Amino acid sequence: MALQTILRKIAMNLLNQVHSSSSNHIHLSPSARLRKCAISIGDGENHFQVDEDAQIRRCNITIEGLGNRLVIHKGCNLRGLVIEVLGNNCTLEIGKNVKNTGPGKLSCREEGTRLLIGDNSLLATGITMLTSDGHDIYGTAGTRINPAKDIIIGTKVWIGQEAMILKGARIEDGSVIGARSIVTGRIETASIAVGNPAKSIRSNVTWDEHLTY
Question: Which molecular-function annotations from GO does this UniProt entry contain (predicted)?
Answer without folding.
Answer: acyltransferase activity
